[in-house]
């Protein structure tokens, strides 16, 4: 069996007013994140982690700054990358994400994020973990933006 680990990161600045989507879940209707798509740092970090593990490049190679992807749902992008990995013979074993954002209390949204990500990735909920940090009033994520770091494990049979 072939096992690979991938890591991905993303960060976006805050915008007010706006809508913040993280892990496919709306977590704020008052403050959002600036970006070409919906700026979902959780999905973007996961996409890069999955692509990295499969040695398939990075998010910018698949989702450019064209009108096609303006305000697009990052869950749609995540599902496309899941489909690409499956097409290449990979199975997603598990994913783990840490989100840092001081602007919005995120813990009430954890279970919905886990469910949404598990459904989008086609894996069990117990294979998805999402953690939150506040930045302790330090740096960019404390008051200016949000970031995410994701790690994943994928597998493929040796004959694949």
UniProtKB/TrEMBL annotation:
<feature type="binding site">
    <location>
        <position position="44"/>
    </location>
    <ligand>
        <name>a divalent metal cation</name>
    </ligand>
</feature>
<dbReference type="GO" id="GO:0016114">
    <property type="term" value="P:terpenoid biosynthetic process"/>
</dbReference>
<keyword id="KW-0456">Lyase</keyword>
<feature type="site" description="Transition state stabilizer">
    <location>
        <position position="134"/>
    </location>
</feature>
<feature type="binding site">
    <location>
        <begin position="58"/>
        <end position="60"/>
    </location>
    <ligand>
        <name>4-CDP-2-C-methyl-D-erythritol 2-phosphate</name>
    </ligand>
</feature>
<protein>
    <recommendedName>
        <fullName>2-C-methyl-D-erythritol 2,4-cyclodiphosphate synthase</fullName>
        <ecNumber>4.6.1.12</ecNumber>
    </recommendedName>
</protein>
<dbReference type="GO" id="GO:0008685">
    <property type="term" value="F:2-C-methyl-D-erythritol 2,4-cyclodiphosphate synthase activity"/>
</dbReference>
<feature type="binding site">
    <location>
        <begin position="10"/>
        <end position="12"/>
    </location>
    <ligand>
        <name>4-CDP-2-C-methyl-D-erythritol 2-phosphate</name>
    </ligand>
</feature>
<keyword id="KW-0414">Isoprene biosynthesis</keyword>
<feature type="binding site">
    <location>
        <begin position="63"/>
        <end position="67"/>
    </location>
    <ligand>
        <name>4-CDP-2-C-methyl-D-erythritol 2-phosphate</name>
    </ligand>
</feature>
<comment type="similarity">
    <text>Belongs to the IspF family.</text>
</comment>
<feature type="binding site">
    <location>
        <position position="10"/>
    </location>
    <ligand>
        <name>a divalent metal cation</name>
    </ligand>
</feature>
<comment type="function">
    <text>Involved in the biosynthesis of isopentenyl diphosphate (IPP) and dimethylallyl diphosphate (DMAPP), two major building blocks of isoprenoid compounds. Catalyzes the conversion of 4-diphosphocytidyl-2-C-methyl-D-erythritol 2-phosphate (CDP-ME2P) to 2-C-methyl-D-erythritol 2,4-cyclodiphosphate (ME-CPP) with a corresponding release of cytidine 5-monophosphate (CMP).</text>
</comment>
<comment type="pathway">
    <text>Isoprenoid biosynthesis; isopentenyl diphosphate biosynthesis via DXP pathway; isopentenyl diphosphate from 1-deoxy-D-xylulose 5-phosphate: step 4/6.</text>
</comment>
<feature type="domain" description="2-C-methyl-D-erythritol 2,4-cyclodiphosphate synthase">
    <location>
        <begin position="3"/>
        <end position="154"/>
    </location>
</feature>
<feature type="binding site">
    <location>
        <position position="140"/>
    </location>
    <ligand>
        <name>4-CDP-2-C-methyl-D-erythritol 2-phosphate</name>
    </ligand>
</feature>
<dbReference type="GO" id="GO:0019288">
    <property type="term" value="P:isopentenyl diphosphate biosynthetic process, methylerythritol 4-phosphate pathway"/>
</dbReference>
<keyword id="KW-0479">Metal-binding</keyword>
<comment type="subunit">
    <text>Homotrimer.</text>
</comment>
<feature type="site" description="Transition state stabilizer">
    <location>
        <position position="36"/>
    </location>
</feature>
<feature type="binding site">
    <location>
        <position position="12"/>
    </location>
    <ligand>
        <name>a divalent metal cation</name>
    </ligand>
</feature>
<dbReference type="InterPro" id="IPR020555">
    <property type="entry name" value="MECDP_synthase_CS"/>
</dbReference>
<dbReference type="GO" id="GO:0046872">
    <property type="term" value="F:metal ion binding"/>
</dbReference>
<feature type="binding site">
    <location>
        <begin position="36"/>
        <end position="37"/>
    </location>
    <ligand>
        <name>4-CDP-2-C-methyl-D-erythritol 2-phosphate</name>
    </ligand>
</feature>
<dbReference type="InterPro" id="IPR003526">
    <property type="entry name" value="MECDP_synthase"/>
</dbReference>
<dbReference type="Pfam" id="PF02542">
    <property type="entry name" value="YgbB"/>
</dbReference>
<dbReference type="InterPro" id="IPR036571">
    <property type="entry name" value="MECDP_synthase_sf"/>
</dbReference>
